[in-house]
Amino acid sequence: MERIDHMKYLPDMEVLEDSDIGERVVRAMRNYDYSKYTAADVKRALSAEYLSPDDFGALLSPAAEPFLEDMARRATLETHKHFGNSVLLFTPLYISNYCENHCIYCGFNCQNKIRRAKLDEDGIRREMEAIAKTGMEEVLILTGESRKMSDVEYIGRACSIAHEYFKNVGVEVYPMNTDEYAYIHECGADYVTVFQETYDSDRYEQLHLAGHKRIFPYRLNAQERAVRGGMRGVAFAALLGLSDFRKDAFAVGTHAYLIQRKYPHAEISFSCPRLRPIINNDKINPKDVHERQLLQVMCAYRIFMPFAGLTISTRERAGFRDNVVGMCATKISAGVSTGIGSHTEEESAGDSQFEISDTRSLAEVIEAIKGRGLQPVLNDYVYV
Amino acid sequence: MSDKLIIGGHEFSSRFILGSGKFDLDLINAAVEHAGAEIVTLALRRVNSFSGNILEHIPAGVTLLPNTSGARTAEEAYKIARLAREAGCGEFIKIEVIHDSKYLLPDNYETAKACEMLAKDGFIPLPYMYPDLNAARDMVNAGAAAIMPLAAPIGSNQGLATKQFIRILIEEIDLPIIVDAGIGKPSQACEAMEMGAAAIMANTAIATAGNIVEMAKAFKHAIIAGRTAYLAGTGRVLDKASASSPLTGFIRE
């Protein structure tokens, strides 16, 4: 199969001619040499009131590993200061797993033989009703990335239905143009999550063999288009383990930093996914990114941007998740099932994207949060 | 001696306003009881959230001060205020219009606009603002019932970073000046009250204390002490000792 140029926009993909944020992020990442930092740099970063991007770089470096305990303490203080005891809860809902992309690490990839399914409007409603019954007030709508099988109108319709059942609606779908984000926003969604997977464009090219997703810069500028489309908040992430995780984490933080400086009203949040095994490939493992490194990245995000949200996914085990809320994470998913239709059917119609590690219900996660002296919050948002 | 705080025609005995945004809901009762707060703020966006309705956690006799947090423009603040009124929160509204996710600094221009819209619609607006005299005057003219300048960036516990500007507001504005945001310690609350602030609003300082009830008590006493000192008239503090031979001793008639 002939591979298209991953740096060249396809027709219909909006180009932000007036923005250089994407280029600046990539340049900053290329210049980031984590081997140059010393213990003194780390100490300086930890004692700075407001951290510079270079301080952030120090906290992500190997030199900071012996300071993980200090980082955790500082992170806890910052989290407490900015979020108090609150921990936000949400559940993701997968409405379609059709995908046109060929990303070699992902269970949804179009070459992987899995059961495909797409919920119709009744199906979406049934699933949402079931989730809302558990008491959940925030939902994150996800699809595989196929504009053919789940077009913008379909996603918009799902957002409108979600708006009836939930106070807060986010989407994690394929990147869109500004006017499409504006449309989804009108339908009731106010938060957009796009994982860049890796900010290393060469590595990106090797991992994303086909489909719209192959176009690196279009994905990179998704958050800026979302903010311009009127979205209240945008979330950033790299899938840690795909490439050099330190460089990727540095790029994630720099990206969020530059968006926040240009759009100071935008609410910023981070996710910290690590690679997980998928159906038909159980050899995938986040070898370099052990829990210790993951925690270092999370604490670095928190200390660098103490006001930003940080979501901890069900990819991680319950014991890890429970300990990072209140320390650096501010948001946790619960009652998660990544299959299609699995909130109402015993046997889901479509297979899941990845294997989850924490299968606890909302009630169980709430109890765990309360047990740590924290306050579960199901909504902290008003759609206006 | 009757020393009441009067906001929008309503009388309060306590000059301590409690924030609820970062509280564990179960502790609100205890904090109100021990700190004697009669006004509790409430983020509308938290209403109906977990543990039932926050309104149910507010003890009887306490006045709710819903805020418009989440608003980025005057129009959004207006919409949120109306939602608060529909939810049964009354006419008091603390205006928060924030267009900055990092420092959470209020937007004075939009806040003054929101003040005007809300006052016209029968609300009792209490604008949270950056202490700027011109903006405060605009808010007074727009119908504010009190002015709530920030002492330091919210949640920063930095104390009276804007002290000199708050002092100017106290001198020049005829409405109660309620110091909001940034107060980290009871001594700072006391200092603001000594200076003539009408009330103190605190949240993070108490929410993050080792013992919430004890810290709430400490704030209560500090605020009373500062107020008492203000009413007593603090003694003059001169930079240098007075000269023993007066400079004007040569005057004869």
Descriptive overview:
The complex is a heterodimer of chains A (about 375) and B (about 250). Chain A is of the alpha/beta class and about 375 residues long. Chain A has one domain (about 20-375): TIM Barrel, CATH 3.20.20. In chain A, about 40% of the residues lie in helices and about 15% in strands. In chain A, strands 1-2-3-4-5-6-7-8 form an eight-stranded parallel beta barrel, surrounded by five helices. In chain A, helix 2 crosses helix 3 (about 55-60). Chain B is α/β, with parallel strands linked by helices and about 250 residues long. Chain B has a single domain (about 5-230), classed as Alpha-Beta Barrel (TIM Barrel), CATH 3.20.20.70. Chain B has eight helices and ten strands. In chain B, strand 7 (about 125-130), helix 4 and strand 8 (about 150) form a beta-alpha-beta unit. The model of chain B has no long low-confidence stretch (mean pLDDT about 85). Classes of the chains: A alpha/beta (about 375), B alpha/beta (about 250).
User: What separation lies between the terminal Cα atoms of chain B?
Assistant: 44 Å
Arithmetic mean of pLDDT of chain A: 91
What is the CATH T-level topology of chain B?
A: TIM Barrel
Q: How many structural domains of chain A?
A: 1
Quantity of strands of chain A, as a count: 9
What proportion of the residues of chain B form beta strands (DSSP E)?
15-25%
For the record, the count of structural domains of chain B works out to: 1
The name of the CATH superfamily of chain A reads: Aldolase class I
Number of strands of chain B: 10
**Principal-axes shape call of chain B:** globular
The CATH class of chain A is: Alpha Beta
Q: Low-confidence spans of chain A: pLDDT under 50, at least 5 residues?
A: none
User: SSE string of chain B, helix = H, strand = E?
Assistant: EEEHEEHEHEHEHEHEHH
